From TrEMBL:
Residues 74-171 form the Methyltransferase type domain. This is Methyltransferase-like 7A. Signal peptide: none annotated. The keyword Disulfide bond does not apply. Keywords: Methyltransferase, Transferase. GO terms for biological process: methylation. One of its GO terms (molecular function) is S-adenosylmethionine-dependent methyltransferase activity. It holds the Pfam family Methyltransf_11. Transmembrane segments: none annotated. The keyword Transferase applies. It comes from Mesitornis unicolor.
Amino acid sequence: ATVLLLRACLVLLASPIYILSFLGIWEPFCRKIFFPFFIENMCAVHEKKTKKRKQDLFSNLPDFKSRSGELKLLEIGTGCGANFQFYPPGCKVTCTDINPNFQQGLSRSMNKNQHLHYERFLVAAGEDLHQVPSGSVDAVVCTLVLCSVQNVTGTLKEVQRVLRPGGAFYFLEHVAADHSSWKYFWQQVYYPTWKLVFDGCCLTRELWKNLEQANFSQLNLEHINVELPWTPITPHIIGYAVK
């Protein structure tokens, strides 16, 4: 009852956005203007908190090069290219995102990271990567994306399809807090309004369970906290899985 009451209060506070959504105005505005702006700035803050973690996470990417010595990498939900700096020199990158409105931030990241070879840019959802041949990439990267895909299981199936045998899937995602915690209480309060404002982002997904059920041959997963003040997205999981 308390959660429902607080949710109602939050709806009242965010009523202009709900009205714009009802009128069909908010979603196109969010995708074209607000969300790309928010993501680029939020990623800058998130990056400061997770840089060392990401450096450690991606440090073994060269271990997954193909026999030819190439490393072909597919990133799901590339956004503004915040992960480019962590990829090894000469890495061949295919970028995908369901939202095509990140061009400015993406161009800035590309200019800063000319040690990479950018192969393709695809407008595609994580659940439907049909433009990418099966078994064609050595690594797949997905950070802060599984919270907003329509189907987590479907996305992980596509990850496994495009990976070659022995390839790796790298992830860093915010997840649901412990159900007995105040963090989870506030995640439930924020959930509907947060999802509307931030383009489908779900606060209470237990993504580690999806990964455990995805039948990877090896799963290296760690629960961590990323301290982002005044946000409900502190709990994260980080790691990689091998096909």
